[in-house]
Write a structure and sequence with these properties.
NAD; six-stranded mixed β-sheet; about 45% helix; Glu/Leu/Phe/Val/Trp_DH_dimer; about 350 residues; single chain; 14 helices; Rossmann fold; alpha/beta; Glu/Leu/Phe/Val/Trp_DH_C
């Protein structure tokens, strides 16, 4: 993703509660299109500065993602600093809910890495501005289902653009990261007749996947997967997967995955283009989850949300066409489309307290 240096964020909030160990940062990048929606990442950052940088990057990405998806939403993101396996508690989640509530609707939260549907149910006990809750509590459930479906639509569009048909049968796809999204994506690909090779830093995640889909092949590392004979590389773990070094080693013709902020440096997008690798911008193809949780705000209907996510196919083709016409990378073309929509709402006032 390539951004203007003089843009956002509108607001950054640090929240701490020593009684339960909460240390959280909430970033609101833009409310030009509506309240800033974005998930909550629970992660053991080594430093507060690393956590802050993640908030700034991710909130900006959410603003562009929501704009390109055609949603009436701005962009925001939050992080809770800590290890979710040992630090997460009901008291901490409720304290975090109070922190979100203090923003009076300028920020709407949801699940992300380290947080789950059941966590959002707890947060919602203290705050009404929560999506991604369980169906039993009026929510849409696990957003990874439609996130994976959107990435699959992005792959189909990439195949259409590059190979002249959206059929993935016989194509070899390498997936790095088989958590919630990677698992659902694997299912879509196998049903489409693709060959799938996976890798993950957690061997248990790979074992669970192969128990369900024994035909899946396994690569011993991300580096081996990247340099292997795959047609499509799908980064589906944390950000920064596309470095100068990894792109130099890449043998795939398409990069299309669910991870946020895949470009370790903006110039990597141009390197991919120069190497003839089609990059499907991450925040374009992984927008299925935010489309799902946005639909929750209107009384969730799965088929309605899925139909919206299906439009990622057409949007991706539009981005590829614009990039080709302007002689730029798809990453830059996607940014320009998102920026145009955000700028078109410049006459609107930022969202005030609801």
């Amino acid at each position: 993703m390539i951004f203007s240096q003089n843009a956002g964020p509108e607001q950054v909030v640090f929240s701490q509660d020593n009684s339960c160990g909460l240390k959280a940062i909430i970033g609101i990048y833009s409310t030009a299109l509506g309240p800033a929606l974005g998930g909550t990442r629970f992660y053991p950052y080594e430093t507060e500065q690393q956590a802050l940088q993640d908030v700034l990057n991710l909130s900006r990405g959410m603003a562009y993602k929501n704009a390109l998806a055609g949603l009436e939403l701005g962009g925001g993101k939050a992080v809770i600093i800590g290890d979710p396996r040992t630090d997460k508690s009901e008291a901490l989640l409720r304290a975090y809910g109070r922190a979100v509530a203090s923003l009076s609707g300028r920020y709407i939260t949801a699940c992300d890495v380290g947080t789950y549907v059941e966590d959002m149910d707890v947060v919602a006990q203290e705050c009404e501005w929560v999506t991604g809750r369980s169906r039993a509590n009026g929510g849409a459930g696990d957003s990874s289902v439609l996130t994976a479906y959107g990435v699959f639509q992005g792959m189909r569009a990439s195949a259409q653009w590059l190979w002249g048909a959206d059929d993935l049968e016989g194509r070899h796809v390498g997936i790095a990261g088989v958590g919630k999204v990677g698992r659902h994506l694997t299912k879509h690909l196998l049903e489409a007749g693709a060959i799938v090779t996976v890798t993950d830093i957690d061997p248990a995640a790979v074992d669970r996947l192969r128990a369900a889909y024994p035909e899946v092949q396994v690569s011993r590392s991300v580096e081996t997967l990247v340099s292997g004979p795959v047609d499509v590389y799908a980064p589906c773990a944390l950000g920064g997967a596309l470095t100068f070094e990894s792109v130099d080693a890449l043998r795939a013709q398409v990069v299309c995955g669910a991870a946020n902020n895949q470009l370790a440096h903006p110039a990597v997008a141009e390197l991919l283009r120069n190497r003839g690798v089609l990059y499907a911008p991450d925040y374009l193809v992984n927008a299925g989850g935010v489309i799902q949780v946005e639909d929750e705000r209107h009384g969730f209907d799965f088929e309605r949300a899925k139909a919206k996510v299906s439009q990622i196919f057409a949007t991706a083709l539009s981005v590829f066409e614009l990039a080709d016409e302007q002689g730029v990378s798809p990453a830059l073309a996607a940014d320009r489309l998102a920026e145009e929509r955000i700028a078109g709402s410049a006459s609107r006032h930022p969202v005030e307290a609801a």
